[in-house]
Amino acid sequence: MRPICRSSVACAACRYKHHRCDGQKPACSRCIASARECIYPLSRRRGKQRQRHARLASPIMGKESCLRPALQAPPNTISSLLSGSAWDVNPTLLDLYYEFFHAAHPCVLPRLHLDEHLTEDALRLLVWVICYIGSLFSESVSVELQKNISVALMEIRAGSRIATGFDVQAMLLYSIAVYWCNKAEHGTALLDEAIQLGLRLGMNRKEFAVLHGQNNPVLEESWRRTWWLFYVTDAHIAGSTHTFPFRTSNINITVDLPCEEQEYHMGNIPPAKSIKDYDNREFSADDELQFSSYAELIGLTRGIERALLPGSTADIQLYKSMCANADTSVRAWHALLPISKRRLIRSDGSVDEIMFKALFIMHTYTVEIHRPLSTLEYSPIEAVSRCAPLAPSEHLQCSGKAASELHTVKCLSAIENVDHLLTLPTNLNAHSPFLICMIANVTIAHLSACRYILQGERLVTSREKIRLTMGTLKRLSEHWALGKRTYREIGTIAREILSLTARPATLSTNTNFSQADDPLMNLDSLEAPFGLSFDFCTPSDDQFSSLM
């Protein structure tokens, strides 16, 4: 990566585009040729305050901007924060970020590559955000970093400096942290800002990575990963709030797909594969075209997005069609997974965090999609949880016992698989906080099963599994305030549901949940400890014929 020019005689636009500036005043030759406003920031080394200008003539700022109005901060405040001791980097906080957050949200430069550029001005806001997120996993959250970030965001909103892709990365990651620090509305607003800013920069287009990659394959890969993290994060929030379609659903995306995590970490970036390559993967020969775990997560998310595009509906026929489309999409995705992606545990004993999240999403959506058509009844107390979906319309009632039992089997099988995922030898604190709402929704459905379906030994076993999910929520709540709130909400729901005494009729006694033929979900053959070659998605050969 070429060092970023910081000459005091270079104008802001040339600095931003890494062009050599001739320093001519009042406007350099490049700005004159491009018919753009030419601004020369005053040197900080002379101790003068940085001037605040009107919005720059930049494609990322304008009247149509969706960025929220900024609270005006005095220029001297911003200048002081962007210089001196405020730019000290705490390596411990960087370590915590990469240990607990990066693997599940891998868009910024790998640690070794980031270390080479920590003192560059273009990365200041990003490094502050990284350190702030790292502080969430420390003994105390950094108030100073929060202040620095807030003031830097004011500067971007005010248009007093040109925003870069690094600023977009910072806003994206900060929106996730803010959301799960129990400021969901603020976090969502920040995500909206970041998406709009990314669009104005053109980060959704393939060309952006090359134009702004500085001839560095690792940086180009980082830009590709940034837009896809936008997309996946947007999908996570849509899933957590049960709002479809996504914000990014109708955006034209031409960005190539990410490579494997190990390749990114080592800096060995292969030629990028396109979305078109992925969409035609079923026609390639075995092992001819392999896709990364990140690409597979993106592929699953795109399939779910297409299936759920109609959104919430009380029309049972439309809902059944949407449900069938989701099943088809997810089953196709699963069927095309290579063996290496079905084994979550790598040869070195580490867990593939991206594929872990992908499978978690798959099972969670299975529960959410099929529960309205199943016999897993809804209780009014579920409204206590902000993660829980609204109770379905009374019109969504399956005709026939076999049909509703089939949907119930799919729900229970998915619940079972979520429990198995949570028993893997993973670092719970390193999972994405978006798993919190997924676990909450699956647990609520499981509580309904305990209340209305399960009996005897299966009920006893399920109660232990609910302890597992509650324990996981409790662990995740140690660092995420919204997780703590969710843990309390699910506890309230559980106490209410499990304290009831009357039990409606159960499913027919010949229904075998543990051996249902669901190639996405049946993991009853799983035994601990897990072998390194264990196929986490092995389908069974049994049939649903008795339920048809």
UniProtKB/TrEMBL annotation:
The reply on keyword Metal-binding is: yes
Name recorded for this polypeptide: Putative fungal-specific transcription factor
Q: Which organism is it from?
A: Aspergillus ruber (strain CBS 135680)
Gene Ontology terms for molecular function: DNA binding; DNA-binding transcription factor activity, RNA polymerase II-specific; zinc ion binding
Domain Zn(2)-C6 fungal-type as annotated: residue spans: 10-40
List keywords of the entry alphabetically.
DNA-binding, Metal-binding, Nucleus, Transcription, Transcription regulation
UniProt keyword Transcription present: yes
Q: Which InterPro entries match?
A: XnlR_reg_dom, Zn2-C6_fun-type_DNA-bd_sf, Zn2Cys6_DnaBD
Q: What is an example of a Pfam family matching this protein?
A: Zn_clus
Gene Ontology terms: biological process:
DNA-templated transcription
